[in-house]
Structure formats: structure tokens, C-alpha cells
């Protein structure tokens, strides 16, 4: 895309020339606005063209690519580029229309572990906060190879990336959650908690917490599968993220009123022992470490209260809320942070701005875009 560089160089130089902060924002002239939109439209067309080229490569049989000297590293680089393009929701949805989604999902079954992992990474980006692409991936039977890789792959990185893609695919997607349950997904999550890879454990715990928050009825399932004991063990992990996610999962179980979750947990001597040990560890922390452990402090206190109907000793010692900290309103949503990438979260919160044909979108298109500084050819007064 050598020719595109000239367009972007021009846009960059122009933007820099008129955004030095010395002038107030001004509307573009009609001529400059037209030039700007044409340049942006030309780039969009080129991105689609490039995605079509990548799709052609993905459709090419593996042995043919090898005969042409294409290596697995080359394929991973190509998938890296594709991932950048599908950061845009529009481009992510276009991937299916140009025929690229199915061969991308095919790469989940590639013989090379690096390609399988990278393909799952791209799928994650495609479906994040994107109901349309979630539906398209489900219709293309994309959940099946992801669950297979998550459950059975010999490479822990492939398993971790597949879990990340599953998490993004089924978030706010009721058919996806139902399919995950039917595919014995909870059993695979239980196995993941027994892994020695902390990143894999964190992702599994965060998905468990999200699923329990979405449907309290699943608390009975995870209890029967032995999750509470596993989460109690992980609540003493050396990894902060694992500890917080494990405590968050236990808190969801404690809040379950349908199966008496708090009573069941309260009867576990191991839980009380774990919580006491964590409370003592926090009580001996320095001021800086206490600040970093704020979420864990809140989780410990809330979980203790839910199970034993009394404040924890952290509260008695004044360590739940330190001087200068706001009083917590709700326990922290540890899992939510994992599933809310900024770009897609913004798009999900502003559907009218990303939906063509909506009144809000049309009104925004009619407004002249603003840049910092005067438009070219206009003198400041």
C-alpha cells in the first residue's frame, strides 16, 4: 500500500500544521471538508482491498503457501495486520461479507500452534462488543473450534487465546452462553483452574465470575463441579489478579440465594482459614501496598460479611477504606475490566453513532468536523 502513504502523509502534515494549540478550534471550509472526507474514503477502500488480499491468502491451501516460501511466521504477521484492520467495527463486520471470516476460523485448526493462537486473537477483536459479528461467528460454527482449542490443545498459549476469544464471543450473547454450557464449557473452566499458568487461571476465573453474575442458576452447577474448593485455593495465589478474581467468584456464590450459597460457603472451614490469612497479610502491609490492594480489601470484607453476617476484622482495623479513599458503593467488578476494551466499549455505549441510517448518525454527518487551528487558506482574525 505504498500509494496510501502519500495520502496519510498529507493528512498528518495538514493536521499538525493546524493543531499547534495556538488557535481556537474552527470549522473546516466546505472545500477542505470534501478533501478530508475523500482522503478518508480512499483509505477505507484500500483497507477493504487489503483485507480481500489477506482473505485470498487465508483461502490458499497450506501446502501451496509452503511451496511459495510462505512460512508460519509470515502468516502470523499477516494475521497481525488483519487484526489492526478489524479494530474498526465496520471492518470487522465487512470481514464476513468479503469471505474472510470462514477461512479465519479455519486457521483455528491449523497445524501450527502460533497460527492457532493468533487466529483466536483476531477472532477476539472481531467479536468484542460487536453483536453482529458475534452472531456471524456463531452461525459459522466458530464456537466449536474455540472450545476444542480451549479444552484440548496441548499448547497453553493456544488454550489461553481460545478462552479469551470465547469470553468475548459469549459476553452479552445469550445464545452463545447457552451453547457454551451445552458444550461442557464449565468442565473445561474447572480444568483451567488447575493449570499452573496464572494468565490462563485469571481468564478462566474472570469468565466464571461473569457467567455467575449473568445467571445465578449456574451457581449450583459450579458448586456441584467443585469450583468453590478450587477458588478457595486460588484465593491464596501469589498473583494479585488471580486472588481478586477467585474472591470475586466466591462472592458471586455467596450472594446466591437460590441454593443457599452463603450458608454452604460459611460451613467451609477452609474458606474462613483462607480469609483470615489474607486479612492478616493485608494488615501487615505498608501504606503503598495497602493502596494497591484496595480491591482485594473490599472483596475480603464483603465476602466475610456475606458468609458470616458480621464485619471483617479489616473493618474493625480501619483497613477497608483508608483515609482519602472514597467509601465503596459496590464490590469491584473484576471480570468486567477484562471484557471492556476501550474502543469497542465506546461503540457499544454509542450505538446510534455506529449504526448507519440512524437520525443521530445522519445529524453528525451533516456537521462540519472540527480541527484545532484555522483551516487552510483562511486567515485568523
UniProtKB/TrEMBL annotation:
Domain TOG positions: 57-287
The protein, known as: Hsp70 nucleotide exchange factor fes1-like
Xref: SMART domains: ARM, TOG
Feature: compositional bias, Polar residues: 351-361
Cellular component per GO, a single term: endoplasmic reticulum
Location of the region described as Disordered in the Swiss-Prot/TrEMBL record: 345-381
Organism the protein comes from: Iris pallida
One MF annotation (Gene Ontology) recorded for this entry: adenyl-nucleotide exchange factor activity
TM segment ranges: none
UniProtKB keywords: Repeat
InterPro entries referenced in this protein's UniProt entry, alphabetically: ARM-like, ARM-type_fold, Armadillo, Hsp70_NEF-Inhibitors, Nucleotide_exch_fac_Fes1, TOG
Upper lineage: Eukaryota, Viridiplantae, Streptophyta, Embryophyta, Tracheophyta
